[in-house]
Hints:
- Mean pLDDT is 89; it is low at 1-51.
- The protein is an alpha+beta fold.
- It has 3 domains: 19-164, Nuclear Transport Factor 2, Chain: A (Roll), CATH 3.10.450; 183-254, no CATH class; 259-511 and 520-550, Beta-lactamase.
- The protein is elongated and about 115 Å long.
- It is built from 18 helices and 17 strands.
- 29% of the residues lie in helices and 19% in strands.
- Helix 11 (313-322) packs across helix 17 (465-480).
Amino acid sequence: MSDHVIDQNGPYRRRRGGGKRAGAAAAAVVAAAAVLGGGAYAGYRVLSPPSQDKDVAAAAGRLQEFLDAWAANRPADAAALTDSPDSARSLLQSVMKNIAPTKAVITADRARAAKGGEGAVTVPFKVALQTAGAGELAYDSEAKVLKDASGAWKVQFSTPVVHPQMEAGQTLALAANAGRGRILDKDGAPLEAASLTGAVDEQGKGVSGLQARYQKELSGGAAHGKSVVVADRQSGAVVKPLTQGPSAKGEDIRTTIDQKVQRAASGALEGVDKNASIVAVDPRTGAILAAANRPGGMNRALEGRYPPGSTFKVVTAAALLKGGMKPMDAAACPKFTSVDGQRFENQNQFVLPEGSLFRDSFAKSCNTFFVEARRKVAGPALPETAKAFGIGSPWDIGAASYDGSVPLPASDNELAASTIGQARVQASPLVMASMAATVKEGSFKQPVLVPDHVRNRHTAPALEAHVAAGLREMMRATVTYGAAAALKDVPGTAHAKTGTAEYGEAKPPQTHAWMIGYLGDRDVAWSVLIEDGGSGGKDAGPVAARFLEALR
């Protein structure tokens, strides 16, 4: 570690001792606080009241000069003011190099300076050193100041002057605490997912993600990742801690992430030039198997808030099935439909031929059919049906998450937009992966990321058997001949629903691309989101296919 370079702003006045001249000069000295890192500074105040003994004032002033130079990381200048220049310079260099304070304030307590035997003046002082990694080290010390044969005042230097708990042959240093806990995958290996794990700052404190949420557990209770210690100068061995570290090693935090699934998700997002996320969950348990984001930073996979677009037709279809519709019922799909003057249309204004079925409108993602069917899901039907998918109550997953919102529609237009996942309907990629998982499992299993720290899992009533069966049939049709044809050749009997969600005020509107689904012969459900990504089938579909192929 190299020595600090100090950029000292403002004047620094070097005071020279010697009889009456030294005392008068010292009386004008002001206590200085030198700050490292952002540019040092020195300020001056009246040295002592006029009534104070001149020798005491001069001695206290000389000590403050020594302290100023020490605080400003000028060990040679400080050492020159002592009776042991070589020893003082060596120890001060060692201390300041080892703990590398970002701020140092060292001030003599002039009011308590007092004469002792043989003309020595004892001056107490206070030290406050701010460190990167161990917080603040603050303590009291004192030094004797002696007048030499020439009449100059010199600081009587010894190791305890620098810190009263140090002895000769010792120094101050930073030492790592007992050990920060690790964030692990489901098998106990270190988790490799930066947007989940988060970051630790230079002081060893978690500032984002799971590192921040579980700072106390991971640190073992320590406020910082390091401690200031007294150490042996020769061996570096710790003699005693001076700032409090943890009493025990930090706790490991185990997640449900499956590294193979996580790598498949991250790999599928490579090459995507938009913000994008993939979430995968185990339908049997709700365990989150993967949560990948590109680029990193915000954990959009768990916390993002987006209109889900046509992927929400899973909820609308569930409400229609619950109300008595069947997948093979007739379902007209015109090019346009209007609600109170607001026109709704299908993507690229497609139409389905006469005789088309509910299953066809779901598989092809016909907006106009769902808008026309809104009267069958009026009132609280959509919010109530959404509850079966866990939406409407907070989730405790062991991490920050956005758990979706399906408000009661305030108008017929809002009801129409809500049936196709627009208006005020919002969800995260996690919510939509869980929606697909609920269809496969037949009941909602609240997603979980850190199971040992989940206290209250949200529960929901199971889907009625015929509702779950109808959704499975239609999600499979979406793959075999519908909008999710990109998954047709993916092994594992994929079931899916696509979504193209409009947002913003642009004309034509920008769209997020969605695809959600599950594999029939494997316990994995997933969602893909590409912000401003175009079309669910055309753009999200190939990303989903790459993800599923990588799971072989």
